[in-house]
Amino acid sequence: MLEYVIMGLLIEQPMNGYEIKKTIDSSVGLFYKVSYGSLYPALKRLAEKGWISLTDTEDAKNKKIASLLPEGHRQFLLWLAEPLDLFRDEPLLRLFFYDHLDPAVREERLAEYRFALHKQVKQLEKVQSIVSKELEELENPEAHYYRVSMLHYGLKYLNMKEQWINDIKERNDL
């Protein structure tokens, strides 16, 4: 999966590893996490397959710029056109079994989860505000429809999960 995320970002412009990580964290980071420890080996695999090129820069030691090659672009589009799978959510799987968890631990975990959800909602609301302003300045904002729709999805999804956890908490408080 990481290889396709990288190629999707490189379609727009060549980047070094730091820029790729930063872009992932600020865009798809809501639903996809990556570490430098997995990013750099993925870049190497992509280069070995001939899907990207890695070019040394003259201005920095050991800094390489990754660029998407035609075969990588083709492979990315093939992957992108595959049928969509249903999303699997590990927290939901754990919550399914929470009846077996010690009540004090359960309450603590639910409170932590609710706090994390709330924090993510607030972060996405800030991003939405920034994106809305940026879209107003673009000549063709419709060209970013699917990215913006993912932002709206993320907000709706997180708000729904936060409300659901609040409902569970209220039931437990009775």
Question: Short description, anyone?
Answer:
The protein has 174 residues and is mainly α. It has helices at residues 2-10, 17-26, 36-49, 70-80, 90-96, 103-137, 145-173; strands at residues 15-16, 52-56, 64-68. α2 (17-26) packs across α3 (36-49) and α6 (103-137) packs antiparallel against α7.
Could you explain the architecture of this structure?
This protein is mainly alpha-helical and 174 residues long. It has 2 domains: 2-80, Winged helix-like DNA-binding domain superfamily/Winged helix DNA-binding domain (Arc Repressor Mutant, subunit A); 90-173. Helix content is 66%, strand content 7%. It has 7 helices and 3 strands; from the N terminus they run αβααββαααα. The protein has a 3-stranded antiparallel beta sheet with strand order 1-3-2. The model has no long low-confidence stretch (mean pLDDT 87).
Helix content: 55-70%
User: What integer is the average pLDDT?
Assistant: 87
Number of beta-strand segments: 3
Unreliable stretches covering 5 or more consecutive residues: none
Strand fraction equals 5-15%
